[in-house]
Amino acid sequence: MSLRKVFRSRKFSKSFMEVNAAVAPKVEGGEKKEEAGEEGNAWSGMLPELLGEIIRRVEVEEEQWPQRQNVVACACVCKRWRDMTREIVGQPHNNGKITFPSCLRKPGPRELPNQCLIKRNKKTSTFYLYLALTPSFTDKGKFLLAARRYRFGTHTEYIISLDAEDLSQGSNAYVGKLSSDFLGTNFTIYDSQPPHAGAKPSSGRSSRRFASKQISPQVPAGNFEVGQVSYKFNLLKSRGPRRMVCSLKCPATPLGETSDITSLDGNKTNSKDQATPTCTVLKNKAPRWHEHLQCWCLNFHGRVTVASVKNFQLVATVDQSQPGGKGDEDTVLLQFGKVGDDTFTMDYRQPLSAFQAFAICLTSFGTKLACE
Amino acid sequence: MELLCIRQWISGLLPTWLSAWCIKPVGGALVRQEPEYILLALMGSPLKKIMLCSSEKEIFSVEEQVMVQHSVIINNMIEDGSYNHEESKIPLDCVDSKTLKKVIDYCTHHTHHHNDNQEDLEAWDAQFLNVDSNGLYDLLMAANYLEIRNLLDLIYGTIKNMIKGKKIDEIRRIFNIKDHGFTPEEEEQNRKEYPHFY
């Protein structure tokens, strides 16, 4: 085989050829120098394998916030870099990691839960969700979501938003809401985005379109019901622990059964999801009565330090991400508890998303009439 | 002088990589080749050179050992015999002269100075990659084309550091990305979403 053939037989990537498009077709070009302006296109349109390698190396190093903002920066440099970054962030080993705002609707990690903090501002009835960056309960953390309580005559609503300052339904940052009945024992979780293709909005909102703050295409306005939480009526009114049940339409978890791993803006689902959205049912783990200490006890593994009736742990009874759909009733999927006057921890994992976990925790605030 | 002393003296003349290389199987065991024979072989023919031809048709003569050590592509070619030392030159149509010279510099330096301490090598590498983004791009393409693993890793590391901690407008400027490809609405949305990144 002649030498020239050896080299010619090597694969040329299209983008490399594009850079030298002005050059003679045989790619004998030493004319690369002349395309000084096109070198700029070279970096944005380089071989996908090389661009992928660069972004992968950035991503691997910056797993935690605030450094992870470098990954987000890569996604904003240009269109090609954005596509490549989304592809890399969407890979299975990155599941559960929070990079873009759209990750807040994706399932949490499979093994270790994401540790978050919720800070309450009683005066403004506002709650702020942060991703914990250190084990300390007093450090700031990365802001994820905010929620504000609005009381109406017969019900209460919590508006959840990506913007800590702008907590209205009309905002671009609106993510969803939580609506409770008068007694404060039954709640419905609404998402501003459809949980699966073909889902119908619950309320009769006008169908004006607005761009959502999600690095994702425009979605129709409306509220889509994605879950329900109910607290069991406690007849005896004894100061026993609450009982709560949640049923959620969960995002498809990539266990190989369902899964469209590259659904980076949460809008694509596979055909299975169109027919029957996956559903998860959670209940709270019953605490044990500690005879000696004369109190109800749950093992929060140090993540909850102040006794409160609000504290809970949720396990799954029905979990489509598990084989057979049966939930593993020992694994705590969501844990919430008090660590300070206005500080709470929230730990969540797959199949729950950060948004769902936050909404469920919000149900724990507020008075539960006839429950305790 | 006794034969033993002569042998030791000759061994001392050889670079370590060559001495280590000289092991041949004899009767099922591996024994070192006598050093005097190696020296005679070296003196007999100069270190083999190969010819690399850039896209601008400029010929570069470089030690075969140097390129074989670093470039997987060239190593494969020499091994499978498609390169004839007397007649052939290796055409590298995708690498211009300036970049090829730099690549050869890199490989040569790393072969001859592989025993240097780590700090010196890193300092040399940093100086080597002190080029503008166009030059860096050309080096990346060349290293990828020739499959020079350690140069590729080095360039990736440098690019990664050029990205980290920078604002997006700065990244675009550094990499000379004039057209970001977003629609005006998308770009406006990006800036609203992450004002502190720009």
Automatic annotation (TrEMBL), chain A:
It comes from the Eukaryota. Residues 193-214 are annotated as: Disordered. Residues 104-367 form the Tubby C-terminal domain. GO terms for biological process: regulation of DNA-templated transcription. Belongs to the TUB family. This is Tubby-like F-box protein.
Automatic annotation (TrEMBL), chain B:
Keywords: Signal, Ubl conjugation pathway. SUPFAM superfamilies: POZ domain, Skp1 dimerisation domain-like. The keyword Isomerase does not apply. InterPro entries: SKP1, SKP1-like, SKP1-like_dim_sf, SKP1/BTB/POZ_sf, Skp1_comp_dimer, Skp1_comp_POZ. Residues 1-28 form the signal peptide. Pfam families: Skp1, Skp1_POZ. GO terms for biological process: jasmonic acid mediated signaling pathway; protein ubiquitination; ubiquitin-dependent protein catabolic process. Pathway: Protein modification; protein ubiquitination. Residues 48-111 form the SKP1 component POZ domain. Residues 150-195 form the SKP1 component dimerisation domain. Gene3D superfamilies: Potassium Channel Kv1.1, Chain A. Belongs to the SKP1 family. This is SKP1-like protein 11 isoform X4.
